[in-house]
Design a protein that fits this description.
metal-binding, 231 residues, Fumarylacetoacetate hydrolase, domain 2, Fumarylacetoacetase-like_C, globular, hydrolase activity
Amino acid sequence: MTGPQSNAAQLRVIGDDDPFYVRRIYCVGRNYVDHIREMKEGDERDDPFFFQKPTDAVVPDQGEVPYPPATEALEFEGELVVALGKPLSEASTLDALDAVFGYAAGIDMTRRDRQRECREQMRPWEAGKSFDHSAPCGDITKVADAGHPRSARLRLLVNGDVRQQTSTDLMIWNVPEVLVQLSRQYRLEPGDLVYTGTPAGVGTVEPGDVIDVEIDGLAGLSTTITEGARR
């Protein structure tokens, strides 16, 4: 049993009866060179930066994402997700890997039009990133069972068509480097999730679309976009 309990969001852990209780959700911005070039923003040599999503934005495998209000450009970003099982603060690379409880497939759902407005107005990204149901995440595979996916293939499919494909070894900042950087800004705790960034190929989805994320060695994630409160 990992993370805070009370009313926290929960994710299934493969091989365990006890769930993973989610404490916080951190996301890495721009961690694949091809995505930086695709979005035409930022310097490829920049240090990683982070933003957060609310804990109750988690949507488990086979869950639904209602199309959110205040957007005409709901986009997917397939990502490797790190689940922490130990505290981290001012960590070394070795400490960082030791704190990882497991990994999962995830999607950083984005209101791209709102995100672009925030960027142009030099405002925080919450309107584009931190809305309800914006953090689908699959079942967690424990490091003890599968190790660390250092060069795993990641694919995102929409209605069966491959839209994103990469290898996790193409991340600009790998998992321990991301955790080291993040632990310099926050005290990380058991129950924290870290979405590690997306490759090129992001695009829009509409109600009725089914998004699947596959990462070698991990459980798959499937999410359906449903009618929501778009306006």
